[in-house]
């Protein structure tokens, strides 16, 4: 249960809030198709990565495994993917934290609330794996409860089928691919998941399955409650969810979810910088703690654009590298299912670059 909560808690983060807007724009059937496809792909990818971790005697993180199995080219690619990607992801959390903080009855401007979030989230990075796992599990349970309540409210509005297209919007058919990859990303939790639970396959399956089910409930909830679906999903709930107390509850659990994911994701790359790259403490601290807020104040504040960028480019490359590592470790040849996996990631990469 603890390992399932760790993975689901890491996955359920900022990406979920891009999905209602993406599903509405691309059509519900397109969104559901990519959500199911993404869940199946990530169950396989996380299982591959867990197998690499278990069958390698040396203790590494993503960058170290890439160097061990893929040589210098894989090593340099993994550095680019893991370090830069995570700094972008933490920046996305900072952007979204303002939307949730504004649902709470707290005084102060959005930027001031974001800075408070940044300070707390940075502190969580330095907690131990077991403490983060418990935090992820508790927060995930709370978020699921809130989403179920919002979904129940949305059923009684009668707006869902009337105001949302089920058919695909073929002009935006590939649009959900990058955000779905981002939304289901949780590779950073796999090393700790393996450490907590040797029987990783069931934990991976249920962690991904629960995340995808929660996402679907959340999408239906927001589309059923709010005719004005905003890019962050949260802002559009104002005026459509009854009572400021309920909005406050959503804001509270949303902030907790972001904080727990901020800690897990930040901790993974921090440990990678320590174990794989031997960076001194002060440099690890500067990159992981101050990198995200520096990007934010440099002007990277567009939520959907950053989600698509990270999912379509960095996470597509990450998936390709994990498959490559696994093939090298197991000494297996390319098969039709593996080629299909690679084609999905390549499609996401090419689409995002062309877009």
List keywords for this structure.
single chain; 355 residues; mainly alpha; Amino acid/polyamine transporter I; 14 helices
Overview of the structural elements:
It is built from 14 helices and no strands. The protein has 355 residues and is mostly helical. It is globular. 75% of the residues lie in helices and 0% in strands. The mean pLDDT is 83. The termini are far apart. It has one domain: Amino acid/polyamine transporter I (Up-down Bundle).
Beta-strand residue percentage = under 5%
Low-confidence stretches: none
How many β-strand runs?
Answer: 0
Order of helices and strands: HHHHHHHHHHHHHH
CATH fold call: Amino acid/polyamine transporter I
Cα radius of gyration in angstroms:
19 Å
CATH architecture: Up-down Bundle
Secondary structure layout plus pairing:
Elements: H1 2-11, H2 19-26, H3 28-54, H4 62-101, H5 110-124, H6 129-155, H7 160-163, H8 177-183, H9 190-196, H10 200-225, H11 244-275, H12 281-297, H13 303-330, H14 336-354
What would you say about this model in short?
This protein is mainly alpha-helical and 355 residues long. It is built from 14 helices and no strands. It has a single domain, classed as Amino acid/polyamine transporter I, CATH 1.20.1740.10.
